[in-house]
Amino acid sequence: MRNMLLTLIFVFISFNFSLAEEIADYEKWELNALRAETVIETDKASVEALEKLRAQLVQWRSSFQQLQNENQNRIETIRTQIDSLGPKPENGTDPLEDRRLALDKQLSKLNEPIVRAQEAFNRADGMVNEIDNLISQRQALEFLKLGPSILNPLLWGATLGDLVNSFLTLSKETADVLSSNYFQEQFSNRLISILLISFFSVLLFIYSGAISNQLNATAKRFEKVAGFLSSSVKYLLRYVALYSLIHLAQSLGVFGIRGDLIAENFYVWVGYFILALWLAERLQMSWLVFEADKFNDRNIEKFAVLGAVILVAQDYGSELSRLQLIEQQSYEVFTSAITVLAGIMLWRISASMKLVVSGDTSSGSLRLKLLGFLRRIIVGVAIISPLIAAIGYVNAGSAIAVPMVKTLGLLALIVILQRLTFDLYAAILNKSEEETDALAPVLIGFIITISVLPFLAIIWGARVSSLTELWIQFQDGIKIGESRISPLDFLTFVLLFTIGYMLTRVIQSALRGSILPKTNLDAGAQNALVAGLGYIGIFIAALVAISSTGLDLSSLAIVAGALSVGIGFGLQNIVSNFVSGVILLIERPISQGDWIEVSGKMGYVRDISVRSTRIETFDRTDVIIPNADLVSGVVTNWTRGNTIGRVIIPVGVAYGSDTKKVEKILRDIISKIEHVAKDPAPGVIFQGFGADSMDFEIRAILSDVNYMLSVKSDVNHEIVKRFTKEGIEIPFAQRDVWIRNPEALKDV
């Protein structure tokens, strides 16, 4: 772990600081390059030595890459000058010959160090790739190395004996140290500090829970977040207490020479157990539902502790082998035993997970499906790793089982952090548990998952140097035409577009809420202006963001040409609706809130977009009308300009009724109805003679045509009431039936 961190620090420092002296010293580079090539050709250096050599080459490569970008502005200026001189005349003398030669000489002089840097860069990059191949080959050979089988009982006694002897050796070293005069003198001189550190460390460990519980006094809506902090502080204090005791013992030299080398790992091993207990406690509170009736919460803690034991045992065996305290054969048998133990634990975990996911995958829950997929992987590892380790492929079995244990711990950490994200979202916005399923926490959880992928790769054997190499390639970006888009350019694009988008929305909100209401523009014009401003603002934001990346916008003409072909064939309807939407926003034949009738659909306009218009019918259903139908079709707008409209109500009376009396009654009824305009006055027309009735029409102007249906209903109610009172009959359809050959009925 320590070497990994040092490597990361070394590599990242090399990215940020160039060695100016070494950049210019190509002689020194030549010596280093020859030495590196010799090491690669002989292939006798250790993996650690190769990694150090690789780091130096990466540093040189980074320096040469920086040199390639020097004087680029000056070079571009000279090339522009050369282009401005125009082509050289084919016949006759060139009056600009001297100027051309001078500029070519300057360009050649400026390109010389760049070409040299390119050659050195390619040489360094090639050697880096060769070292990567060598290390990969050695890892593959080590992975497939055949060792002793744990199935041989004759090896058990020797392995156990080596482990016991190594423990006795380390114990003897500790006993020798404790009995030495030097230690006793040191202990006496530092007795007070030793007692104080020990006392406060033990006190801190015991009362860590009480101290952390004070965080629960936070506001109620931050209860879950406070619980997370309380738990984290508790285990952090316990780790600090144990760390202090280990450091105290190490400073006194209690462990001896070889024991002190092993004690360097105590900080990590204690961290394994502390982290395991913390993960178990927080996982029980997470949304990864291990229901009480299906999965015992105690099992989580047992599995977590057992996982920590496996990791510590694996590291302990490696340290014993490194210090030559046990034989290589015993180490491999011990590693096989750890692999078998890990396989058993993974099998038990898969069995417990089966209780959770069985019978529930059909519900469509993504979480349960992922759990089911993870369980199948765990089952495979639990079976394969002990099997191949028992055959003799010890390294292969261990390289599968132990990383799987670490992976489960990492996945548990992801789940806990995602749960924390949802809790923070709910607490900050004061939302309930059901309302936390929003886009923001989901995106943050996705970012958390993506951010741990490098650690997951390291767990499964990826080298830190390989990951940094991928990061370098990622930083170089993607070449699009003559431009190269880097991640920084992409982030700049996202940032500028987001700022432009938010600024557009702020301006739209200010116009809609503060400025436009104070003008004489109608609601439709205001909505059209706000919508048009939104489209223009987004377009400008996208244009500025694209320009900031360095992308040549002239190259987009090719894309535009290709799009035009596609528009001419497959996208013509979409483009037609888009253009029609722009026409609707500019000419405004309809506005938001208008009562329109189009294609047999009648309702109120609720929203006008660039592709379609949404109208709400009188039965409260939304109908999406393509904008092309509104522009090219026949549209009836009942409320365009104003809400004044005419209503026509047909009325039929029976033959024999007094028509003048009917006309008087109808005129009296319509004049008393609300929303009927007095000027012009409503009228009653005797239309003519129908098949079943004498037909009248009431024609009136309404102050608000939106009340047309209610006015018709009120008028019809009054007609029935008055006609009944006045004895005027409202006829129904009548037919005279004539029977041909009525004499035939006599025989019936």
Q: Tell me the strand order in the biggest sheet.
A: 6-5-4-3-7
Form type: elongated
Number of helices: 27
Give the class from helix and strand content and strand pairing.
Answer: alpha+beta
Q: What are the segments in which pLDDT stays under 50 over at least 5 consecutive residues?
A: 1-23, 287-294
Number of strands: 10
User: In percent, how much strand structure appears in the residues?
Assistant: 5-15%
Oligomer: single chain
Roughly what percent helix? Answer: 55-70%
* Main sheet: strands, sense, barrel: 5 strands, antiparallel
Distance between the termini: 113 Å
State mean pLDDT (0 to 100 scale): 81
Integer count of domains: 4
**Spatial extent as radius of gyration:** 43 Å
Task: Using brief descriptors, characterize the structure shown.
three-stranded antiparallel β-sheet; 4 domains; disordered N terminus; alpha+beta; 748 residues
Topology:
Blueprint: H1 2-16, H2 20-24, H3 26-42, H4 47-68, H5 72-84, H6 97-143, H7 154-179, H8 181-189, H9 191-206, H10 208-213, H11 223-251, H12 256-263, H13 266-283, H14 297-322, H15 328-357, H16 366-391, H17 394-428, H18 439-451, H19 453-459, H20 464-476, E1 478-480, E2 483-485, H21 487-515, H22 523-548, H23 556-569, H24 572-587, E3 595-598, E4 601-608, E5 612-617, E6 622-626, H25 627-632, E7 635-637, E8 645-653, H26 659-671, E9 683-689, E10 694-702, H27 708-726
Antiparallel strand pairs: 1-2, 3-4, 3-7, 4-5, 5-6, 8-10, 9-10
Helix pairs in contact: 1-4, 3-4, 3-6, 4-6, 5-6, 7-12, 7-15, 9-11, 11-13, 11-17, 13-14, 13-17, 14-15, 14-17, 15-16, 15-17, 16-17, 17-18, 21-22, 26-27
